[in-house]
Automatic annotation (TrEMBL):
Keywords, comma-separated and alphabetical: FAD, Flavoprotein, Monooxygenase, NADP, Oxidoreductase
Highest taxon of the lineage: Eukaryota
Pfam families per the UniProt record, alphabetical: FMO-like, NAD_binding_8
Record-given protein name: Cyclohexanone monooxygenase
Natural source organism: Paraphaeosphaeria minitans
Gene Ontology terms for molecular function: flavin adenine dinucleotide binding; N,N-dimethylaniline monooxygenase activity; NADP binding
Cofactor: FAD
Family statement: Belongs to the FAD-binding monooxygenase family.
Amino acid sequence: MAEAVSMPQLPREQLKFMQEAAKRQRPEGAKQFQELHYSDSSRLRNLVDDIFADHAALDKRSLPIEGGGSTKFLIMGAGMGGILNAIKLVQGGFQQDDILLVEMGGGVGGTWYWNRYPGLHCDVESYVYLPMLEETGYVPSHKYTSATEIRNYLVKLVEKFGLEERILFRTEVNSMQWDDDKKNWRVDMTTGKGDGGKKKTTLSVNADFSILAGGIFPYPHVPKIPGLVAFEGDMFHTSRWDYAVSGGSSEDAFSELKGFEGLRVGYVGTGATAVQAVPEVAKYAKELFIFQRTPSQVNTRRQKPTDLKEWSERIATGPGWQKARMENLAQHLSRNLPEGTVNMVDDEWSRLQAYCAILGSERFAGLMPDKIPEYLGHLQAWDADHNARARERISTIVSEKSTAEKLTPWYPTWCKRPTFSDTYLQTFNKPNVHLVDTDGKGIDGVKPHAIIANGQEYPVDILILSTGYRSPAYGGGDPAARNGIEIIGRNGLKMSNKWSSRGATTLHGVFSHDFPNLFFFAIAQASATANVNHTLEVQMTHITSIISHFNPPSDPRDKKVVIEPSAEAEEAWAMSCLSGAAFFSSVSVCTPGYMTMEGDALNQKSQEKMMQAGRGSPWSAGLVPFERMLEGWRAGGLEGVVVDTI
């Protein structure tokens, strides 16, 4: 049980949190948004076109596989997760020719391919975020590296491990169906070429193993705003920043956005993207109107170039240094800290005492429902000082009192991903920058040349939509729903039906009974931390270890091995996750957002639905204990896996 903590009374803060959350509750929940990929409007669908691809060069590439062909491993996604999984297979002894990566975009990088907005840097220290620094010897240029550097580094990783010819670009997986006679997956895809990649053809291939690594934010969305489609100025979503409109270049995080000069720019959203992009837009726009529904918590960043002396003497200190540093940050975030633990990363993330609320912690192992109020009290007490300092920081930076008040967030730190900037709040002191706070309502509508908010029209020439993505919790964490594909396993069982009828059902969050040789990256029934690379490292190591154990690369290439968890093992795992679900009751006090599916996740109507949702809870002890548990399971012989060899 948790250590004794002095718990100050926080009636004013708690009341304010409740009031602000209530303002933002909408009966339609997540349905207040529309996903751009699936919009009825061609204009909105076109906002997610690939404007970064070199289509002429891609048209000249030879396809790594032809229709009807076969591959041992098909990996869906060539972002950080897909690249890392492919590299681990190569490091384990498999051949590059055994691997096919399927990527929707025209290049590698995933979120770092699509997101190129100005000012974009990783919000986690690059020394723990960039994968395989120890293996490559690469030294990031800054403590928090730019999107361009990250994207270029991932390209170099692909080249270093000989995977550049093993990627099928501009290709979307539509469905996967298990063939129990052939013991493989039939994967149906749509691939593009010519005419900007818009000439579509279908392609079907066979894969012994399929691995889903499509990321957690593949689908940008926008609010269902009346009149949005009829806006007559230039409009784009930040996930496809249009430098033809703004000026500048996607290869320079701080390039000159001269396309905004002399123009009125409307910017919708004040989340993590806005915190980085808004200061850059404000340098060039004649007037910048920033429309806010919910303010972000903005902490200090303290960006700095990498000091090579510090790098060699205190960071890259010897074998295993990056893994140790990643685990150190995860331990600080989960408050799983052995006595005398040094803070290696030493940044604002590592000092967020209550962020364990959504990551897990051993401090509250075995939390029972009747102890939830006491547990929430501990979390709020841990968060009180930090939250108060973050609010106070706004009033010391923003000169106009009313603006500072509107920029002040009123929710526990763990309810939204905290942000870090030394320029965002300062931007609101500029005379050309205007905050339009909607008091939680969002904007009312759009006219051909104006945005309507709070009953008032704001004339704008350009509209930037910084409105986020579909929640990773979509479909209860169902991998098929999250990746936008249909997955049909043994005996015609659809994964979506399995999830909807029972809730999350996996072993360790990475594979599921009746879906043989299918692996996926997940948060449901797994674990996570603020550093996505660490989460990927743990899960991709686990996936490749399972495959290599039962089908080692030394086996004949035509040997067929079928791997899946037993029904009993995955049900026991689901019950284990359910037993820790009370830990994540912390989100019950949160303002609606992507973590709660805009409040939908908090509105379960029956005990049965609550139990189903609870099955999908992450491992409640935190990522490092989760990793130690997985390592012990593998060392003990991988109990609960059913294997058929042909």
